[in-house]
Design goal:
This protein is an alpha/beta fold. The chain is built from 12 helices and 10 strands. The longest helix is centred in the first third of the chain and has 20 residues. The protein starts with a strand and ends in a 5-residue tail after the last strand. Bound molecules: nicotinamide-adenine-dinucleotide. This is 3-Hydroxybutyryl-CoA dehydrogenase (NAD-binding).
Amino acid sequence: MDILRLTVLGAGVMGHGIAQKAAMSGIKTTLFDIDQTMLDKAQGVISKNIEKHFVGKGKITAEEGEEILGRLSTSTDLVAAAKEADMVIEAVPENLDLKKSLFSKLDEICPEHAILATNTSVLPVTAIAGATKRPEKCIGTHFFNPAAVMKLVEVVLPVGVAEETVETVMNFCKQLGKVPVRVKDVPGFIVNRLLCPLYMEAAQIVLEGTATAEEVDTAMKLGAGHPMGPCELADFGGFDVIQMAQDSIYEYTHRESDRLNILYRKMLEAGRLGRKNGKGFYDYEADGTKKLFKLFQ
Ligand SMILES: NC(=O)c1ccc[n+]([C@@H]2O[C@H](COP(=O)([O-])OP(=O)(O)OC[C@H]3O[C@@H](n4cnc5c(N)ncnc54)[C@H](O)[C@@H]3O)[C@@H](O)[C@H]2O)c1
């Protein structure tokens, strides 16, 4: 099956990037949100991106840019947005009850053939699929931030998904210019399962005073060839998200080494979330510059 009509739920950080990429790949895309200001903001960002990075750089003509924007519509009406979709990708906040309730509604609204996908980072896709009467057509599509740029999509296979659904979604991701990787619905999938131990050990090194976050980042960038150091990357991902990911991995493995490092708990208690509020291992200024945060006196 080809995906000709896509609906994206949630016009935030991830949703608008996925919608932009889909519209650019020739797919008729509807972006749904409960908040009209988020839809207006998303449309503005997408128009600006297309103008600046594609039309402005001569990669596409102004006419092609208009065609892309013409393929993208927005809505605050879930029924109107989803009733003709071949596929829906939800990118609403990371809350299991919210995602289950949306999947249950989508199951009633969408055509029988429609595939329902979740962009969850840490929640069980099988539980979200379980809120529908079509688990064989439910799947995880874990895009990475920024979604319009990052190449990887983890295609997450919940219990009961049909091979036909997986094949369709793998092809859809390729149509978007992404590289999809199949992974079973186990906490952390692949990327977070491997990044979380790195985040934990980096925090332990900082906590015990072996090296500063800046020294850890420099060492891993220059010694291991990582484009971002683990503390910078943890700031980028957000400590709240890392906490959820780490806790879900621990619940699965029950290994002591998979417990959340106390430093992240302390940072969260101190209201430090990472880059999203400008306070992580570093303090971030509005102009993008950063300064190492002194954890303890
Ligand atoms: N931000 C990341 O780096 C990242 C990376 C990968 C995956 N994810 C996952 O993607 C999902 C979305 O994350 P985000 O960072 O884009 O969130 P966000 O907070 O930036 O955006 C969420 C959007 O959903 C909207 N929303 C809230 N309730 C809604 C509802 N009932 N129906 C429709 N829209 C609703 C909000 O108005 C907001 O525009 C989460 O599951 C998250 O775990 C995030």
